[in-house]
Design brief:
Length: 413
Amino acid sequence: MPGDKSVSHRAVMLGSIAEGDTIIKNFLTGEDCLATMNCFKELGVKFEGPFGEDLLVHGKGLRGLSEPSGILDAANSGTTMRLIMGILSGQPFLSVITGDQSLVRRPMGRVVAPLAEMGASIMGRNENTLAPLAIRGGKLRPIDYISPVASAQVKSAVLLAGLYTGGKTTVTEPAKSRDHTERMLRHFGAAVETAGNTVSVYGGPTLRGAEINVPGDISSAAFLMVAAAVVPGSELVIENVGTNPTRDGIISALKSMGADITLFNSREMNGEPVSDIRVRHSRLKGAVLEGNLIPKMIDEIPAIAVAACAATGETVVRDAAELKVKESDRISAIVSGLRNMGVNIAGMPDGFIIRPGNRLKGAEVETGKDHRIAMAMAVAGLMAEGETVIKDYDCVNISFPGFYDVLKSIAKE
Ligand code: S3P
C-alpha cells in the first residue's frame, strides 16, 4: 500500500522542525503530501527526493525556519493548512497561506480560534475563518483547550503550537480523533501525556531527526477492502496497512456488516500498529454506524456507502455532519453519485440511509474533484451493470497515485 497520508504529512512537518536528518520511507507521493513538502521548502527546509518513496529531510530545528518570500500553497490539503498554521503561529515572522477552490471554502475558524488564544495574530477572509490567511506568529502561551469538534487537525495544530510555548498545552476532544501527531512527537523525543480524550505537550523540546517507516494507508486500503468484500469470488491480501485504533473503524464497520476480514502479521512501526489484512467476499448485511465509531472511519464513509449497496437490509450512517466540510460536501456527493447509479439512498443533515435492493447501473458520475468520492464511485462501478464514467478521475492522485492500476490488477474481467 502507498504510505499513509496523515503520517506522511506529519513526518515532513516534524522532520522539518527537528534537529538533524529525518529519513521517511514509504512516503506518500500524493499531491497533498507534496504540498506540505513544498510549503516547508518555502520556509527554508532542504529535502532530498522523493527517490521512489524515500524522502530525506534536513531538519532546521524548532527555531530554524525562515520567512517565506511567497505565498504558501496548501493546494487541496486541509491537513497541510491546519497543521502548518500551528507551527507558523510559533514563528517570529509573517506567513500567508492559501489553497485551491475547495480548500478556500473549508472552515479554518476552528484552528484560528485556539491559535489566537495562544497569542498568534491571524487574519483571513470571512471574519478570519477562511483562507487565504495571514499569520503573524511569535511567543505563544500554553492553553487548556476544550475542542468542540473531534478533529485531529485542530488537536494537532494546537499541540504543534504548544511546542512554541513555555509550558504545558492541553487539548480535550469530545471523542478521540486520530493520534498520529502524539505518537510521532514521542518518536521525535517530545514529552506527551495522554489520558482518555485529553492530550498534553510540553513546550520547548529538542526534537531529534528520526527514521520513519510510513505504514500503508488504511484510508486507501478501505476501497480495496470493500471491493473484495462485495465482488463475489474475491479473496485479497493487502500487506502493510496501518491499523492504529483511532483509524480502524472501517474494519469494525465492515465486520459488523458480516464481512470476512482477518488481520495477521501484526507488528509495530515507529509507534504505529501495522497488519496485513485478508478480505474474502461474503454476504453483507446492513448496519447502523454512529457515535464514537464515526471519527475512527470518517474518511472511509464513502467506501462504506458502497459496501452498504451490496448488503441485505438498511444501512444508516449518522453523527457524521463533518462529512459536509471535507474536500467536498461528501454527504451530497455520496447521495447524488449513488442515486445516479440507481441506489435507493436518502441524505440526512448528518449522514444517509441506504436501502439496497436495486442492481447498480453504470452511470456518468461527478466527483467534485474529491479523491475519495472518485475511488468510491470506481468501486461502485465494479459492482454495476454496464459502464461507469468518472468525471475528473485523476483527482485520486491527491491520496492514492496508481489507484486505477491497482484496481485493474485485482479486478477480474
Ligand atoms: C486528518 C484528520 C481528519 C481527516 C483528514 C486527515 C489528519 O480531518 O478527515 O483526512 O491527518 O489529521 P479532521 O481533523 O477535520 O477530522
